[in-house]
Amino acid sequence: MTESTHNPGQPANDTVRNADDAELAKFADLAHKWWDMESEFKPLHEINPLRLGFIDGHAGLDGKTVLDVGCGGGILAEAMARSGATVTGLDLAEKSLKVARLHGLESGIKVDYRCLPVEQLAESMPTAFDVVTCMEMLEHVPEPSSVVAAVSRLVKPGGWVFFSTIARNPKAYLQAVVGAEYVLGLLPRGTHDYAKFLKPSELARMARNNGLDLVELKGMGYDLIAKSYHLNDDASVNYLLACRKAAA
């Protein structure tokens, strides 16, 4: 990554962005639907209580400074702010951030939204956050290891980092791509690129290589009968990873 001279809060140029323009375009086209509970983002609304509970159960959000990397329209960011955290939301999709800011005005929930790469923020604000979350984002970037490294720099010693993404194996392909996108229609077709999925062992290794200790790994399943999501011990498809940075 090259050094950037952009002002904080402004989009960086393409030479510093760990981003796929095609991926950003997908979310830009859907940006106006972020808070439509019956839209393509319905699954994110349905899993949000699980994500929030997992994070709060480990880190205790009340009174903490939190960074949400890949915040999109602010679904998780607002929930964490509502739980008492001071939240900064980071994303490269400006249209999504405009929706997030507008919804924050409507809801009265304050989140500081910024449009810049996480690597750039890590240069200017190392060890600034008690908690960093990076949910449903790593499978959409060209270099996930770069994001993990930046996240580790941003969290304080003793702080918490949370990831969620999709495992790479035939079962995950059948459920997360074929099933969710083509059979059940839970997600728009083309949402995911199977080649970008990460095995839990791969993500855990990236975390360890950047000074983050694995605390808990949980799977997230979908009950076809109840039409609801739940946490379990099967991390073969969707999973969450809780990590902690060693204290100074």
From TrEMBL:
SUPFAM superfamilies in the cross-refs: S-adenosyl-L-methionine-dependent methyltransferases
Domain of life per record: Bacteria
Pathway it works in: Cofactor biosynthesis; ubiquinone biosynthesis
Record InterPro entries: SAM-dependent_MTases_sf (IPR029063), UbiG_MeTrfase (IPR010233)
CDD domains recorded: AdoMet_MTases
Broadest EC class assigned to this enzyme: transferase
Its job: O-methyltransferase that catalyzes the 2 O-methylation steps in the ubiquinone biosynthetic pathway.
Family to which the UniProt record says this protein belongs: Belongs to the methyltransferase superfamily. UbiG/COQ3 family.
Name of the protein in question: Ubiquinone biosynthesis O-methyltransferase
Organism, as annotated: Chitinimonas prasina
Gene field: ubiG_1
